[in-house]
Amino acid sequence: MPKLERVLILSASYGEGHQQAALAVQDALVARNPGVDVKIIDYLHTVHPMLNSVARYCYLKSVRFAPALYGLFYKGTSRITSRSLLQKRLNHLGFEDLAEYLNEYRPTVVLSTFPTPAGVMSLLKQRGLTDIPGATVITDHAIHSQWIHPCTDHYFVGSDHVRQGLISRGVSDHRISVTGIPIRSEYFNPVDRDQIRRRLGLEADVPTLLVMGGAYGVLGDITQICEELFASVRRIQVIVVCGRNVRMRTQIEQLSQDAQNPVWVFGFSREIHELMAVSDLVITKAGGLTISEALAMELPMLLYRPIPGQETQNAAFLVKSRVAVLARNRKDVIQHVERLFRDGGSRLARMRANTRLIRRLEAADDIAVELANVEGEVSVREQLAVSEHLYAEQS
User: Fold this and answer.
1) Can you tell me the mean pLDDT for 287-296?
2) Which of 41, 236, 318, 352 is deepest in the core (most CB within 10 A)?
3) Which of 247, 221, 178 is nearest to 331 (CA)?
């Protein structure tokens, strides 16, 4: 097996998912390869800080206040090809900077957990400016052309559904590994649930509901949902994670003062794995990393108003796998909570059992192993196949 000396991981700080995937792979690489040098770069922040700030602001605002508009953007960009003006511009973002950095750092392999640097890396290889192998981790159970580039040497995907989507777009089967989406080890290492319950002050015999607003607190209507849950006649205890949204946390803490049920309110937390470990159900968005973490913890999901695009595709995959239910409005949320906690949680038990059928705990480790074997040449024939399939899809 070839030795990995230096690994460059290109990520982005849009939410936490891409960065957390990068960190998970880094941990696995270091554990498997003592002495390996792994660098993670927030790509857009590094090569174009102003554009990154604007794009990140627009992304967070659109998914919170105008999800339909974001859905149209997602659908529109899913059809662009490497021949389009927009894609050519995206592929040139930091083009010279990345070429220079590759020449200086000389990584053994480059791994992208965000689509933009994957496109830039592909173009560098296409133009003969680097021969370093380039691989991509697709961090959703969704197919989008922004992830697919003619000179990407290998793809690591979360499910066979994504694998089939890549193959239908001209990617050769031998360049795809179904590993799952990489998560950090705390989500599958054993935890002492009773000890965590005691530390938090949770009641052992009362069902626990975890409400997650996302890293930036963008889960829509979370305050109104919490107000109804806090007043529920069904005896439950509720944990609410507001992320970095200070205003939301303040509002929910005020509501909790008059709650009929026990409530715990957190801001941004690095201990989500512990909160998941002691919960019976999570209300969440359908982000790729969050759902992978929930699956690892065998935690059933109530998915609320997934953002049109990758989240709706993630939600469809989970509902079909019978590990999640979907709520499109606040009334649905309350009805689902009531139904799922009824009859001693028998339906939740079935959903929990189903998580074991589709979860992949060793994704990061599998990627760390396979990265050493990624070959750095995509044949001209394969490049043309991907380009032609994407062009036909646009047409």
Assistant:
1) 92
2) 318
3) 221
